[in-house]
Specification:
34% of the residues lie in helices and 20% in strands. The strands form seven sheets. Strands 2, 3, 4, 5, 10, 18 and 19 form a seven-stranded mixed sheet that branches. A five-stranded antiparallel sheet has the order 12-11-23-22-21, sandwiched between helices. The protein has a three-stranded antiparallel sheet with strand order 1-8-9. With 655 residues, it is α+β, with helices and mostly antiparallel strands. Among the domains are: 189 residues, Penicillin-binding protein 2a (Domain 2) (Alpha-Beta Complex); 168 residues, Beta-lactamase (3-Layer(aba) Sandwich), CATH 3.40.710.10. Strand 22 and strand 23 form a beta hairpin. The termini are far apart. Helix 1 crosses helix 2, helix 11 runs antiparallel to helix 23 and helix 15 packs across helix 19.
Length: 655
């Protein structure tokens, strides 16, 4: 009985299992055969699309938080070259007619090598909404063409501080391989120059993502979720917008004025075709203003440069507007170098603060059989001068003797031209390096020049082949000779400095002997909304004391230079200036750069009794230091202290 019931139950269970398998098989057959097409259509009609939302880039602000670079939304036309197919020419023609941009320009932008073949290339920005609607409504006429609303950089001050601010551009293949760009992708825009490049890690925000469920036509069905974009941090600079504008206007106006001055040395009007100006905080090294002429509009990079635009910027007549002369231009410093040679001579016992020195119109190196004569800038014999007076009247022949004194400190084998001096044996160069010459300042910009502080090893390696080819008997072609130190003592010969280097060194004289690292960044801020900000990072001044010099020595030189605008080489340039209200310490410089006209320098510390600012101006082919650079510095000081403008009064042809 029991066995019969058990068998019955097993039969029922078997029937149920068989039925379930039959139902499952039927359902599987239905899904795979009868309903397969319907489900395939549904799968095709519904998919997930991720839309990237660009993050606003952080702003760049001046020291008073006035925007120098900010963002705005722009309608940008992009073209995917792989989707153009064989219809590229007609598509570009239709785009040209719609946007009012020449086909050739569109084609050049489309071939921008910075973009990968599969990467959409921006070819136009700030298009009208009507053009946007036309492209969107006629996709068959514009295959591969898209319009995206993109935050782009806005420069509310135009060309102001262009060399400092820099620009953004598509990330390059080389950059993608660098550690600092880890996490970036090929579609990112990154800082490619200036502050934009140096502070990229803070300025770059994190893009957002919106997830949509879309049908086969790409039409959104519903929004599935999002990750909002995170804006970049703001960078606050040490630049003062008002001072920057003042400096750029003074530099441009002064150069224009100089071009109406007849150069007595060449009989032609001064070219004054390029220049630079730097204003530093004397105590901290903060860059208050930095200008280079000629300049450019950073907005030109937003749509990508065409070949024609690039050629226009690079043609010789344009004088390299992209080149930052304030930080990269290397020039003979002329007589602006003399205060540092004087300090070095005092430290080495070649000169003293209480000594007096002859200032004849000429100098010949003792024992020089060639009889080479080195001339003072003036043909007058000034008699014996104190070290201070030698700086005030900029007597070359006093400094020639100092240069020869440094030659005498070299080992006998070096003086005998049988051995090349080691850098540690070259006392003058060693002292000048203490002031930052020959070393690139650690300014927070991508490319900063080091100038050139030449020595025996550099000269031998540079001119050894010339020596053997030109005149093997003239060892001074390749070996360091007395004349090299004679020329270096007045900032000539092979010595080169950048305007920024010179300003940094003068700041050390101004503040009593501390060499401060020049810097543009003050702090990084993160906007929190409601006008509140979080300070992410503060950038502290970095200064070190120059060893081996006393505060009294720096004060002596500064007090001497305070007489330059009173009775020295800048007196005519500062005629009528209220020096009793705003005392100025400064030094003129006239650099010889054959075959060009002389380059004009002026370096100033103001106010002279307790300097707050250091101002350095250089004008290529601007003539003597008192002719062009000194009047420009005067104009800047008048603006800084709210004094009446005197216009540009040429300071004559003093050194």
């Amino acid at each position: 009985m029991t066995e019969g019931r058990a068998g019955f139950r097993l039969k029922v269970l078997a029937v149920l299992v068989a039925g379930m398998f039959a139902a499952l098989s039927t359902r599987l057959w239905y899904l795979q055969v009868l309903a397969a097409e319907r489900f395939r259509r549904e799968a095709e009609n519904n998919s997930v699309r991720l839309i990237e939302v660009p993050a606003p880039r952080g702003r760049i602000l001046d020291r008073n938080r006035v925007p120098l670079v900010e963002n705005r939304l722009s309608l940008v036309v992009t073209v995917n070259r792989q989707e153009l197919g064989d219809d590229a020419e007609s598509v570009l023609l239709r785009l040209s007619e719609l946007l009012g941009i020449r086909v050739r320009v569109l084609a050049e932008r489309l071939q921008d090598p910075r973009y990968y073949p599969y990467q959409p290339v921006p070819v136009a920005q700030d298009i009208s909404k009507d053009a946007w609607f036309t492209i969107a409504e006629h996709p068959e006429e514009f295959p591969g063409v898209d319009v995206v609303e993109t935050p782009v950089r806005r420069y509310p001050r135009g060309r102001l501080a262009a060399h400092v601010l820099g620009h953004v551009g598509p990330i390059t293949a080389e950059q993608l391989d660098q550690e600092r760009f880890r996490g970036y992708d090929r579609n990112d825009l990154v800082g490619q120059a200036g502050v934009e490049a140096v502070y990229e890690r803070w300025l770059q925000g994190r893009e957002g993502i919106v997830k949509y469920l879309v049908n086969a036509a790409g039409e959104p069905i519903r929004r599935l979720g999002e990750r909002p974009p995170v804006p970049g941090d703001d960078v606050v600079l040490s630049l003062d917008l008002g001072v920057q504008r003042l400096v750029e206007q003074a530099l441009s106006s002064g150069m224009e004025h100089a071009r109406a001055i007849l150069d007595p040395d060449t009989g032609r009007y001064l070219q004054a075709d390029a220049g630079a100006a730097v204003v530093l905080d004397a105590d901290t090294g903060e860059v208050v203003a930095l200008a280079s002429r000629p300049t450019f509009a950073p907005s030109i990079y937003q749509g990508g440069l065409t070949t024609e635009e690039a050629a226009r910027l690079e043609r010789p007549a344009a004088h390299q507007p992209l080149f930052n002369r304030a930080t990269q231009g290397a020039y003979p410093p002329g007589s602006t170098f003399k205060p540092f040679v004087a300090l070095a001579a005092v430290r080495q016992g070649i000169a003293s603060l209480s000594g007096s020195y002859p200032c004849p119109p000429t100098f010949t190196v003792p024992g020089d059989e060639s009889g080479t004569v080195f001339h003072n800038w003036s043909s007058s014999d000034y008699g014996y001068l104190s070290l201070a007076s030698a700086l005030v009247v900029s007597c070359d022949t006093v400094f020639y003797r100092f240069g020869y004194g440094f030659w005498q400190l070299l080992p006998p084998a070096v003086q005998g031209l049988t051995q090349v001096a080691r850098p540690d044996q070259e006392v003058l160069q060693r002292e000048l390096r203490r002031f930052g010459f020959g070393v690139a300042p650690r300014l927070d910009l991508p490319s900063v020049g080091s100038g050139l502080l030449p020595g025996g090893r550099w000269k031998f390696e540079t001119f050894r082949d010339d020596w053997q080819r030109v005149d093997p008997f003239n060892r001074c072609i390749a070996y360091w000779c007395p004349g090299d130190y004679v020329n270096m003592s007045i900032g000539q010969g092979y010595t080169l400095v950048t305007p920024l280097q010179l300003a940094t060194a003068y700041a050390a004289i101004a503040n009593g002997g501390r060499l401060c690292q020049p810097h543009l960044g003050l702090r990084i801020e993160r906007p929190l909304g409601g006008g509140r900000v979080e300070v992410v990072k503060r950038i502290r001044p970095r200064c070190r004391r120059i060893r081996g010099y006393t505060p009294e020595q720096f004060a002596y030189v500064r007090q001497a230079l305070a007489q330059v605008p009173v009775s020295g080489t800048a007196a005519s340039a500062f005629a009528g200036f209220p020096l009793d209200q705003v005392p100025v310490a400064g030094k003129t410089g006239t650099a010889e750069v054959p075959p060009h006209q002389d380059y004009s320098w002026f370096a100033a510390m103001v106010p002279a009794d307790d300097p707050r600012y250091v101002i350095v101006v250089l004008v290529e082919q601007g003539g003597h230091g008192s002719t062009t650079a000194a009047p420009i510095v005067r104009s800047i000081i008048e603006g800084l202290y709210g004094l009446p403008s005197s216009g540009f009064v040429s300071g004559g042809v003093t050194d």
